[in-house]
């Protein structure tokens, strides 16, 4: 089992040309460098799931199975009904709406926008960890990790290449203009599983349900009374591995 820092995170070199496609290429290159074989499984968490969608689009013949846990969605994917996407988008804080709008329509200025301290609202409650979390477990995890300094340490480790090359470039890739719509992908030659909590305060469950409804080949697992931080759900890691390899 191999985990790695995506481009611009941790000790991995930044890639100014980073995209959904390069995220998939990075996984393929790493698998080949480590001699993992012709096929390998991929598991993505939250915003990092864009790399899994990229793998299903650009290197499907290399994927033995895929799992996505609380994958972040792009509100501008064409497969979403406009009314549904607008409704869920409008439920975000105004600062988050503007941050995503800039990331989509003007990604070249996202770093400048995010650094404007004069704005009356936080430019992104997600980046500053103040998003309202309706799930009690999520809220408690954030309180604990904030109090003991874990969140600060993780942020420092993640952004050591600069916040522009990590968080902000991730926003531009995830919420920018994609070369494909995940909901238009053909069925890949491997099983695909998606886990989503119904009390996720960061990813609208309504949009996730729509994706699962559009893609009959996605095995959708909705977790009742569960939020976004799925790695903290007791036993879920084992469940994911048993599902992929069983």
From TrEMBL:
Residues 1-20 are annotated as: Disordered. Gene3D superfamilies: alpha/beta hydrolase. Residues 2-230 form the AB hydrolase-1 domain. InterPro entries: AB_hydrolase_1, AB_hydrolase_fold. Pfam families: Abhydrolase_1 (PF00561). This is AB hydrolase-1 domain-containing protein.
């Amino acid at each position: 089992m191999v985990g790695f820092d995506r481009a611009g995170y941790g000790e991995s070199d930044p890639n100014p040309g980073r995209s959904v496609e390069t995220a998939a290429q990075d996984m393929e290159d790493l698998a080949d460098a480590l001699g993992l074989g012709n096929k390998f499984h991929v598991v993505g968490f939250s915003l990092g799931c864009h790399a899994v969608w990229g793998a299903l689009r650009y290197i499907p013949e290399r994927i033995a199975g895929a799992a996505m846990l609380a994958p972040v969605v792009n509100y501008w994917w064409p497969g979403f009904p406009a009314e549904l996407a607008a409704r869920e988008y409008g439920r975000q804080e105004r600062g988050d709406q503007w941050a995503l709008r800039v990331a989509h329509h003007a990604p070249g200025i996202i770093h400048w926008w995010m650094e404007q301290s004069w704005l009356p609202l936080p430019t992104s409650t997600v980046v500053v960890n103040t998003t309202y979390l309706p799930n009690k477990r999520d809220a408690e995890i954030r309180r604990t990790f904030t109090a003991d300094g874990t969140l600060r340490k993780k942020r420092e480790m993640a952004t050591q290449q600069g916040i522009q090359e990590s968080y902000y470039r991730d926003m531009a890739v995830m919420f920018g203009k994609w070369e494909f719509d995940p909901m238009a992908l053909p069925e890949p030659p491997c099983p695909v599983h998606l886990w989503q909590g119904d009390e996720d305060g960061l990813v609208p469950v309504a949009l996730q349900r729509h994706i699962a409804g559009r893609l009959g080949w996605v095995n959708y697992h909705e977790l009742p009374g569960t939020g976004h931080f799925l790695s903290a759900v007791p036993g879920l890691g084992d469940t994911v591995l048993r599902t992929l390899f069983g």
